[in-house]
Design goal:
This protein is of the alpha+beta class. It contains one helix and three strands. It has a domain of 38 residues. 0% of the residues are buried.
Length: 84
């Protein structure tokens, strides 16, 4: 009478190809002794400067102020250093 358990026919449907796994390239991570600082942008649209265990989070004005202060102190250095 009724075919309640009728299964749909999918013979005319093309199957998706199997996903190919692309190997991730090996990137050698720096050791903690080599990392001096990291800089990035947070999800709150701020600039984060991480030095050691401390993190400084700034907005654009704070970042500009920090750069100006660093320029002043760099000009006060008396010792000439070579690029290392």
């Amino acid at each position: 009478m009724f075919d309640w358990f009728k299964k749909p026919e999918y013979s005319n449907v093309v199957k998706f190809p199997e996903q190919i796994k692309v190997p991730t390239p090996y990137v050698e991570q720096p050791t903690p002794e080599e990392i001096h600082y990291t800089i990035g942008i947070t999800s709150e649209d701020r600039i984060a400067l991480k030095i050691g265990y401390s993190t400084l989070t700034m907005n654009k004005a704070g970042c500009q102020n920090l750069m100006e202060q660093l320029e002043v102190f760099v000009k006060q250095l008396t010792q000439k250093e070579t690029d290392a």
